[in-house]
Design brief:
The chain is of the alpha/beta class. The protein has two domains: about 200 residues, Quinone Oxidoreductase, Chain A, domain 1 (Alpha-Beta Complex), CATH 3.90.180; about 140 residues, 3-Layer(aba) Sandwich (Rossmann fold). It has ten helices and 18 strands. Strands 3, 5, 6, 9, 10, 17 and 18 form a seven-stranded mixed β-sheet that branches. Helix 8 links the parallel strand 15 and strand 16. Helix 3 crosses helix 4. It is globular.
């Protein structure tokens, strides 16, 4: 089969012929329809973030597809079924899995990191981790539910705990942040979208943001949010992953506010500990999505309460996957999410 293989940082992925994965009795072989192109992959390629499995490695952790073959012990899937594969596979046995926090499983396995991923014609997966996709959802575009939508869904629903009427400042409206906007709006939050690109802010308005702020056009973003909200946001969700944007998100909160950090950064961040203590502020991390939430999210997408098709702005054949990363590097205002199609 054809696959885009990662051989190490600071070099493009190489399209190569590799063996089709063999499956165990409890696994399914999925013919990949599409796989979302994610910033996480670019961290491996451009920034030297190490993968758990040493290269060569097939990247890609956001796939949808059709079951090509099911192992002898698989009961819930058959050949021809449309499926979504989550980015992370869980053990089901550790303390975190047994207490409903499978997304931080002690021995989690990630496609395109611990094991070969889905920038390929086929990918193997445990049947227990796959989800059925309804016919109402377009198979190609639905791939982004696996991570680009599920990750902010978990951030909004379980970590930020957004409730109807909450004011929510979302910092960064790229491929993940824009979904934090639409999910927060869908559950009743009054969303203030913050981004340096007006094109992304236009998308935020279309997807439910009540107000937008461009930090390039506003001298003090925290002050602007306090003015809009009468004191500050109840919740701020940071979706970029830099110390500056994390600190900016914190500055938008009112007393008792909650900061949720969705963007990844390995750098240290300066937050005022006295303010956190004296005003009873909260700072929470968020990672991935729990398996139990995927069926609910898929149903929200099926019924149109969460938009999927509109967010896939660019499609690339697998052979052009490096062009997809070039587009991401350019930061095009019109680009939200790209997918690779084998």
């Amino acid at each position: 089969m054809k696959a885009a293989v990662f051989h190490g940082p600071n070099q493009p992925l190489k399209i190569e012929d590799v063996p089709v994965p063999k499956i165990e009795d409890d696994e399914i072989l999925v013919k990949v329809a599409a796989c979302g192109v994610c910033h996480t992959d670019m961290h491996y390629i451009d920034h030297g973030v190490p993968t758990f499995k040493k290269p060569p490695l097939i990247l890609g952790h956001e796939p949808s597809g059709v079951v090509e073959k099911a192992g002898s012990a698989v009961k819930n899937f058959k050949e021809g079924d449309k499926v979504l594969l989550p980015a992370v596979l869980t053990c089901g046995y550790c303390e975190f899995c047994r207490t409903g926090r499978e997304n931080i499983c002690q021995t989690m396995v990630m496609f395109g990191n611990n094991i070969d991923g889905a920038y390929a014609e086929y990918v193997a997966a445990p049947a227990k981790d796959a989800f059925h996709l309804p016919d109402e959802l377009p198979l190609v575009e639905a791939c982004i539910i696996a991570d680009a939508i599920s990750t902010p869904y978990h951030a909004v629903k379980n970590r930020a705990e957004v409730k109807p009427g909450d004011t929510v400042a979302v910092v960064g409206c790229g491929g993940v942040g824009i979904n934090a906007v639409q999910v927060a709006a869908a559950v009743g939050g009054s969303v203030i979208a913050i981004d340096v690109q007006n094109g992304k802010l236009d998308w935020a308005k279309k997807l439910g943001a009540a107000a937008t702020i461009n930090p390039k056009e506003e001298e003090n973003v925290g002050k602007a949010v306090r003015k809009l909200t009468g004191g500050g946001a109840d919740i701020a969700i940071e979706c970029v992953g830099t110390p500056a944007t994390i600190e900016l998100a914190f500055s938008t909160l009112k007393k008792g506010g909650r900061l949720v950090i969705l963007g990844y950064s390995a750098k240290e961040v300066a937050l005022n500990a006295g303010k956190i203590m004296y005003f009873e502020m909260e700072v929470r991390g968020t990672l991935g999505c729990r398996p139990v939430d995927y069926p609910k999210l898929i149903e929200l997408a099926r019924t149109g309460r969460i938009k999927v098709t509109e967010l896939v702005t660019h499609k690339f054949p697998l052979e052009k996957i490096n062009d997809a990363f070039d587009l991401m590097r350019k930061g095009d205002e019109k680009a939200l999410r790209s997918v690779a199609i084998p």
